[in-house]
Design goal:
Part of the outer membrane protein assembly complex, which is involved in assembly and insertion of beta-barrel proteins into the outer membrane. By secondary structure, the protein is α+β, with helices and mostly antiparallel strands. The chain has one domain (27-104): 2-Layer Sandwich (Beta-lactamase Inhibitory Protein, Chain:B, domain 1). It has three helices and five strands, in the order αβααββββ. Strands 1, 2, 3, 4 and 5 form a five-stranded antiparallel β-sheet that branches. It is rod-shaped and about 85 Å long. The model has no long low-confidence stretch (mean pLDDT 83).
């Protein structure tokens, strides 16, 4: 009888953890949240200051390629309700202060 009660208690205590909902995980957004509307407003020929006004400062300004700006975005522990960006990796290339190329990955 003692063995049966002990086995039953052990089985119930081990399975009890799965009865609770999983803990809440806070979504951690990192980078520039860029909407589809902002991407549609980008135009070749815009100045650097116009791009900064529209999208904000870039996440990465490469020292080797100073004319290439990278706008990155990622979310860790994303849920369906989490905000999503229109672009995970947007690369803008400038020549003499004007936008010449847009790469949206």
């Amino acid at each position: 009888m003692k063995k049966t009660v002990l086995i039953l208690c052990a089985a119930l205590s081990l399975s009890a953890c799965s009865l609770f909902p999983p803990p809440y995980k806070v979504p951690v957004p990192q980078g520039n949240l860029i909407t589809e509307e902002q991407i549609s407003q980008l135009q070749i020929g815009m100045s650097e200051s116009q791009v900064i006004y529209l999208l904000g400062n870039p996440m990465i300004r490469d020292t080797i390629k100073p004319n290439e700006w990278h706008y990155l975005f990622s979310v860790k522990h994303a849920t369906p309700e989490t905000l999503t960006s229109g672009s995970d990796n947007l690369v803008l290339t400038f020549n003499n202060g004007t936008l010449t190329q847009i790469k949206n990955n």
